[in-house]
Amino acid sequence: MKRLSVASVLLLLGGVLLAAALPLTWTPGLRGVDYPGYDIVTTLLLTLLLFLAALAVAVRRRWSTSFSVTAALLASFWGVLVVMAAAYPIDSPRGDSGSIGIGAWVALGGGILGLFGALMSFRSGRAAAGVSGAASGV
Questions:
Q1: Residues ≥6 apart with Cβ < 8 Å to 49
Q2: Residue 19's pLDDT is what?
């Protein structure tokens, strides 16, 4: 049985963290699942993208690196948006900053972990190319 690469494991863990952020508190009194439907759908779609990226990196498809980087950048950007929305809520009087819940930080951590995995796929792709390359005549 083949071992999974570090890149695919990090992408998978990033997706798990992103999904795990939904039932956690993003702002005081509001969990991720309490937000409008598009927030839940976006989080679940990005989780699915990270899972698919992990699968693509694990089976070493030619396009897996660019796909994993794109998915991880989107997930990281979403994590930043979640933290920023929690820090500066729209309904806050006089633009006061809000309190950021653990779920927002977990969503950001999942995106960043996925990004590390995507960047690691560059290294694992190079190593695989070096192993499967033609033998040297030296």
A1: 15, 71, 74, 75
A2: 92
Helix/strand/coil for 61? coil
C-alpha 66/C-alpha 57 separation (Å) is 10
- SS3 letters for the chain? CCCCCHHHHHHHHHHHHHHHCCCCEEECCEEHHHCCHHHHHHHHHHHHHHHHHHHHHHCCCCCHHHHHHHHHHHHHHHHHHHHHHHHCCCCCHHHCCCCCCHHHHHHHHHHHHHHHHHHHHHHHHHHHHHHHCCCCCC
**Closest residue by Cα to residue 11 from 41, 53, 43:** 53
* pTM of the full structure: 0.78
